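Follow-up to my earlier ticket, as requested here are the two runs.
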Amino acid sequence: MIAILQRVSQASVRVDDEVIGQIGAGLLVLLCAEKGDTDAVADKMLAKMLKLRIFSDDAGKMNRSVQDVGGGMLVVSQFTLAADVAGGNRPSFTQAAAPDEGRRLYDHFVSQARALHPVVQTGRFAADMQVSLINDGPITIPMRMNA
């Protein structure tokens, strides 16, 4: 599973000119399930994400997690994170999970996130989305979890 975390002061996602998810300060999570990923991999990634200390404490050091600061999470599916650009000019997405499995893992991740964190908003799986954000810092963290 691959994720890009962006610490944001605000973020939103639109589908057909309608805002379907938005948060204030917190994490924008771009999430991609890959072939072979499992619920356990998703759970491990979420646990790490919720405890990752990338928010500033009173001294200005990155020493607080999204849970510590009470920040929101906006989780957006993005299969293009699995892109392989090694062989030509058109990216290959063969390592991305099949759409049905990708949706199942995304839904599992979101369900678990909502059970563990008070503010979780989402995009819409497989939709054409427009994501807006104000990256705070800027802080952008790539994550990859394997079985």
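Run two:
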Amino acid sequence: MIDTVIFDMDGVLIDSEPIHWQVNQDYFASIGAPILDDEYSDRFVGLPLDKMLEHIKETRGIDRSIEEMFTESMANHLEAFSNADLVAVPGIPELIRALKKKGFNLAVGSSSASQLIDIILSKIGLKEYFDITVSGFEVDHGKPAPDIFLEVASRFKVNPEHCLVIEDSALGIKAAKSANMKVVGVRNNTSGNQNLSQADLLVHGFSEESRDRIFALIEQGIS
């Protein structure tokens, strides 16, 4: 029986990928490493920032340290999201409130930094609903490794098999399945053409119909 629901943040709780994309594109261009849209969506959506920077450094021959690039890039992200007008994805507040009312453990498991998770959850008015948040920087290995989701299960002291993950990226779905958890794949056009075929259920947004299908998967194990 599922008793814990873990939400990815970017692309699930908030349609933030366009902001991440612009911040990253501007920064990569400033250090002489511009990237194509397809490369970004295929390789970087759902990947922790440090791993993204490692790939850029290795493939573009950038003569700067990962630490320096990370500090600069993270500052850019924090500034952009602090100044942006942010809203939750339509239907997400209703889903979260319904889950909370039914007594589910709720968590965020995101590749983003803890500071960014805190800013975004506060600005979209959902911070109070989550018992736990786990950042990719708090575990040894980010997505597609299962560490983030297993850490959530460990903190709640629940069996991973009793957890459901809601994800919009191929890397996140792979991580959840590796953790032996059920997964709802969310089709988000701004996240690129993600391969969500491993998901137990695929939804296009969080309409009332989609929310009903998610509860069916949770409560009855059907889609």
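The only thing I checked on run two: The chain has a mean pLDDT of 91. Let me know what else you need.
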